[in-house]
Amino acid sequence: MLSPHDADAESSASTCCMQSDEDDEDVNHRVYPNWCSYRHTILRRGFRLDTCRDVKQLYQRYWEALASQGCSISKDSPGYLRACNGKSDDELCPDIGLPDNLFRGTRCLNGTSFVIKAVHLHSREYDVVRYLSSSPIREDPMNHCIPVLDLIEVPSDDLAFIVMEEWSSHLDTDPPHTLWGFLGIVRQHLEHIAFMHTHRIAHLDISVPNTLTDNTQGYACIDYETSRRFDAVNPRIRCLRTSEVPPEVERGECCDPYKIDVWSSGMLILRVSQLTGCQPPELQPFILRMLDEDPMRRPTAREALAIFDSTFRTANAQHKFDA
């Protein structure tokens, strides 16, 4: 007969084996739709996908702006040439820089740009995004995900489209240029991860490329393809595919998903520090706590946020963070 301790251990191991990247692979793989087939469905919701005409006009405006600044221009851009080679101006024109599960477009209501992503209707990603975008969750000031403009479901095809504001600047190509900008990124990121963990969601692919800015000191995590929302209080996972691989995942252990996020967040902060050159003396011990090889010794995301505040958020800097 199993002791209570052994029973708990067996239960945890069973949960661990159930939570893996191999689970439900038929609904969690990337979806590459025939965008032409859903063009009018998306348009009926007030969102127009980019056509060859749109792309050519975008390049023309860009070149005119460069010319007005006295810059030389070249009209051999692959994106422009693709638009020119379309069969007609009304033909859809995918962005050459995006994977086939993403498409750009314009909102009919106000002409603002958006990015739309196709996902399986029953995927973990769609479950997480739908939850984070629901009211009152989306209004929480700690929720730093890109605003979702609409969720368009096509149940007959087990398909859903996530329509998001276009935040085009990647953190690795447009890092902040001041210490306060750097610390602002760190705090917004820690807030969002602590917020997600409070709601039993783990991101599980935190990295520099998965962080965008809206160019107004707003930063957000993106790409919830590997994210999960858990029912269990203390979930465990294994077989994880992630950009920043913590030691316990490399060892093949049954892992605490939230401590994986903490480790990946430490790596994110380290890499952004290197990108920006912002390396205050208090930063290294803070990062090292998050990168402890033993996940049990790492702080939780909420603890990391509290440590950050007590270390960096001085009275003199208060207005910088609240601005």
UniProtKB/TrEMBL annotation:
Residue ranges occupied by any Protein kinase domain in the UniProt entry: 67-312
SMART domains the record matches: S_TKc (SM00220)
One MF term in the entry's GO annotations: protein kinase activity
InterPro entries in alphabetical order: Kinase-like_dom_sf, Prot_kinase_dom
Signal peptide start and end residues: none
Tree of life domain: Eukaryota
Transmembrane segments: none
Coiled-coil segments on the chain, per record: none
Name of this protein: Protein kinase domain-containing protein
